[in-house]
Amino acid sequence: MAGVTDRPFRELCLRYGAGMAVSEMMSSNPKLWKTAKSQQRMVHEGESGIRSVQIAGADPKLMAEAAQFSVENGAQIIDINMGCPAKKVNKKLAGSALLKYPDIIEDILRTVVDAVDVPVTLKTRTGWDTENKNCVQIAKLAEDCGIQALALHGRTRTCMYKGEAEYDSIRAVKQAVSIPVIANGDIDSPEKAQHVLEYTGADALMIGRPAQGRPWIFEEIQHYLENGTLMPERPIKDVQGILLGHVQALHQFYGEYLGPRIARKHVGWYLKEHEQASEFRRAFNAIDAANEQLDALQGYFENVAS
């Protein structure tokens, strides 16, 4: 979710029912911290809710230093990423590439836990590939190292995001450890959320891609779990207000040049299920000016979506 779960998006998810929002993944390599992209990801003072900051890397010492740096900049929880399947992350032996090396995992977890006074959590996958699922071993190791909670995506590294997530591994991990286990993967509806909770016994759910363009999914799930009924479909006027507010927040956060460019993908996600929006999206992606984007969206909702 790097490049997606920036501060404007996290604030929006929290507003619409998310219990906690984890930051974009931050590299433990200090040489990368001075880039504009990293600078925008690294300051967390003043954010809403519990501030959980995710770090990634393969060097225990650098990971510990990144954790300490993040705490100094407002992090209240450190989340270690051992789940990212991206090639550019894995080729540096970070993310889910580490699942091949439990000894390195243990070294990283113990070093980071010892380096900070805040809780440390772990995000991981079921294993390297379908023939080598070691998530139960890694979960037990994490618990022994002092990890406070474990989020598990129901796919291996080689699965990337293809196929369907499986929940048997998450259930096995939940039964094997006493720390909280958070289920992740393809939880895209209130009914699916309830099924995953009941099937795995997980303590909580983590939702990523299904919240893209639908940050109110958390509110829908909470309502269903509490009442057993689905919320009415969100009125188009509400979607208009949420989307316009999100785009304005992106413009303000990233500035007049980068803001409109980052807004394009979010607008695409919001409108992906609008059959009448395909032509508008193509035109919208050619707009570079922030005010013109807002005018175009206003026109879309007034003349096309209505």
TrEMBL record:
Sites where the protein binds FMN: Q54, K123, H153, N184, G185, D186, G208, R209
Function: Catalyzes the synthesis of 5,6-dihydrouridine (D), a modified base found in the D-loop of most tRNAs, via the reduction of the C5-C6 double bond in target uridines.
Protein name (Swiss-Prot/TrEMBL): tRNA-dihydrouridine synthase B
Species the sequence originates in: Vibrio hangzhouensis
Keywords, alphabetical: Flavoprotein, FMN, NADP, Nucleotide-binding, Oxidoreductase, RNA-binding, tRNA processing, tRNA-binding
Pfam families reported for this sequence: Dus
E.C. no: 1.3.1.-
Family: Belongs to the Dus family. DusB subfamily. Belongs to the dus family.
GO MF assignments: flavin adenine dinucleotide binding; FMN binding; tRNA binding; tRNA dihydrouridine synthase activity
